[in-house]
Write a structure and sequence with these properties.
Layout: E1 4-6, H1 15-25, E2 29-32, H2 41-46, E3 54-57, E4 60-61, H3 67-80, E5 85-90, H4 94-100, H5 108-128, E6 134-135, E7 140-141, E8 160-164, H6 167-176, E9 179-182, H7 188-205, E10 214-217, E11 221-222, H8 227-245, H9 251-257, H10 262-270, H11 274-277, H12 283-289, E12 291-292, H13 298-306
Parallel strand pairs: 1-2, 2-3, 3-5, 4-5, 5-8, 8-9, 9-10, 11-12
Antiparallel strand pairs: 6-7
Helix pairs in contact: 3-5, 6-7
Amino acid sequence: MKVDYTFAPTWPGEAPAAAGWAQRVGFDGFVTADTGHEPFLPIAAAAAAAPGMEFLTGIAVAFARSPMVTAMTAWDLSVQTGGRFLLGLGSQIKPHITRRFSMEWSSPGPRMREYIAALQAIWNTWQNGEPLRFQGEFYQLTLMTPFFNPGPTEWGSVPVYIAGVGPYMAQLAGEVCDGYHVHPFHTLKYLQEVTIPAMQEGADRANRALDDVEMVSGVFVVTGRTEQEMAAMRAAVKQQIAFYASTPAYELVLDTHGWDVHEQLNAMSKRGEWAAMADVITDDIVEEVAVVAPIDELGGAVRKKYDG
């Protein structure tokens, strides 16, 4: 089991100190997010400060970027980190792609499959000198002149991880990816009954072993040094769970347990009743979704829940 440090979305200039601290503490990886700041720049800044550490975007929004742009950035970061960069991609949801990024949205699962294939085609051209002739439904990449070709690297293709919630992305990860990010809004029952079987189906389709795919997860925790601190964090986690439970994309997690709260929370969100939504989330739901333990017991509790 590896434990990664998530770099809070702050300025890239703060990344070297954060990465150095994380490595000294004992973290295995340094993760950035595509939220209020660009996810690749902190890794470029931090790479030299934490030699031997892995660096991972968790995640970068794929459909906001051309495959060529992502391929070039990942190629450079692979060199910058000495082959320790892992490209984590996510699809985001339609409103963000069309209204925040002003990009095209259609068939996110098939588009992600093709996006990964496009990356591999570009990297194959750079690494092995093969002509670039990628013709897909969503992307067509057929021009690569020497001036724009960075050439081969010691490490070649960059490991690709994707994030998802539903069975399609889990199958895709099992079939073609190096790793799969599970959203923090999950339970062990959901992983065991929905996620892992879907990943296995994808792996079987490609004649791969499921062990070839690294499983990655964000984890909600309720922790603290006092009862008051734990109570405050429980309230914050309930608020987060309520937000995700109000969104149709995560309804399948609720259905796995028979938690009939989505319609109520969705209606409350449309009325702007954000603060009150946390009251709908019971302690039983928190115990299933989050890891709950005092801070001196937290590491053991995470390992006990997720080991294997």
